[in-house]
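Holo prediction. Input below; ligand is zinc ion.
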Amino acid sequence: MENLIEKAASKIKNSKLTIALTGAGISVESGIPPFRGKGSLWEKFDPMKYAEINYFLKNPNEVWEVFLKDFEKTLKKAKPNSGHKGLFELEKKGLLTTIITQNIDGLHQKAGSNDVIEFHGSFANFYCLECFERVDIQGLDLSQIPPKCKKCNGILRPDCVFFGEMIPQDALERASMLASQCEVVIVIGTSALVQPAASIPVVAKTSKAFVIEINPEPTPLSDSIADITLLGEAGSVITDLLIELETF
Ligand code: NAD
Ligand code: ZN
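Structure of the complex:
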């Protein structure tokens, strides 16, 4: 592991353009459960059903009651952990340009990162299904479920991408461009199964980038396109990387 950290740090140090792709795993240490794996939401219910757009549109009351209500509470109290903070440290050192995140929790921005592409939108904002009036998470009134629009009494939805919805065009374009231009991509806490985000490391690899993966469990990337897999939790591995980078 020590040698792998050293090699990863050296690649990052010598790269002209490094990006990170993050998934639910980087926020696990902030108390937000991922969709898959140990302690995941999957163990309670099927996120493919409750985070799927057609199911939500047909059953908004149920989805708010079973899933979104608690998810909102969890996100509201979550704070950036040493993984998020470590990525901001890398940015400050000029060693990380952009984070492409599949997360909707806003924790990279809270940690200070300045260039975050929210590939799946954000849970910081909501809008009305009827009149599109917007409200932010602070103004969201959950005293009744589902929460309603103050203007027209329509049901509110989060401004994030549900399964079955399109990725915001600007996010998709910028992410694809960076994937094809970067020299190093650090893939952190993602099972690399959800498309099209999963194709980002593939595009990077095809364009000759070095792929560093950080995850406590091997993923489909580990035996295929990852050049290095650093097995461990995001917070401690990123901290180790930063310590190693100090020695250069
Ligand atoms: P996922 O739930 O499919 O996979 C999580 C991955 O994180 C797994 O590979 C797991 O081994 C790894 N992991 C667990 N603990 C970790 C840790 N401490 N450090 C590093 N890695 C760890 O997540 P996904 O691939 O991002 O896909 C699920 C989709 O669900 C995402 O696209 C996202 O939009 C959404 N989601 C977001 C949040 C959030 O915003 N925090 C939470 C759950 C789901
Ligand atoms: Zn409305």
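The longest strand covers residues 121-128. That is the main takeaway for now.
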